[in-house]
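Hey, can you fold this one?
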Amino acid sequence: MTYFIVKTYQEIINKSVAILSHLDNPKFEAESLLAFVLQCNRSRIIAFPEKKIEHDQYVQYMNLVKQRESGMPFAYLTGEKEFYDLTLKVTPATLIPRADTELLVETALSKMQDNDSYKVIDMGTGSGAIALTIKKHRPNTKVIAVDQSLEALLVAKENGERLALDVEFIHSDWFSNVQGNDFDLIVSNPPYIEEHDEHLVGDGVKYEPITALVADDDGYSDLFHLIQASLPLLKEGGWLMMEHGFEQGEKLRAEFTKQGYQNVATLKDLCENDRITIGQK
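Sure. Predicted structure:
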C-alpha cells in the first residue's frame, strides 16, 4: 500500500516552482494555482506556509501544474479571467481576454455619456468581455453581442446571466443575422493574425481557437470586411472601433478613409504600439 506523505504549502510550492521554472513568474503561478485548488486567497498561502494539504487536493494541484508546464493557459486551467473590472468564465472555445483590449473598451466608453442611451454592437464577442463591460458602465445602453461560434456565444451568455447584465446575444457570421442600421457604435476585436505568424505556436496561443485569431489576406480580410460592412449600419456620427495588430494601423487608416469615414485615428497601447483604429460616419 502506498501512503501519502502529508506536505505543507511551502513544500508543494518549492516543488512546483522547479517544474514551472521556464515561466516568467513561476512562484506566482504556483501560489495562484494552489489558491485555486484550496479555494482561498493567495495571501493565505503566503501567510501560512506550514499548513498541510489533503491528498485529493495535492493530486488535483499537481495535475494542474503539469498542464501548465505543457503550456496550457492559466485561465483555461481555472476557467476564469479578470478583464477590466469583471471576472469572466473562459473556455477553449473563447479567446482569453487581454489587457490590450481594455483600450478598446475605454475608447468606446469615452464616446458615450454616463446616463444617455445608445445602441452598441460587439462583433465577435468571444467570452463577452467587451460587450459586458460596456453594459456595466453604460447601463442605459442597448448592447448586442455577436459571434459565429455557438460555443463561444453560450459562454458569453452564461457570463451575462451570472453578472446580471442584460445583453442581447446573436449567433451570426458577422452581420448576416443582424438587423438595424441605427448603431451608435460598432466595436470589434476580430481575427487579425496572418496564417503563418510565428506567434501562433507560442506558449498558450496554440490552445486558443484558431478561427478567432487568424484571418485571410495576411490578417486583413475580417478587418476590411468590418470597415466596409459597418458604414451602412451606423447612425450619422456613429463610430467603428477595431483592435488590430501593431503593424496594421497605416493600412487600416487608408481603408477607413477610402470607405468615407471621418476623424480616422489609430490609438496606441501601453507599449506604444498601434492597437485600435477608429472612424466616424
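The radius of gyration is 21 Å. Let me know if you want another pass with a different chain boundary.
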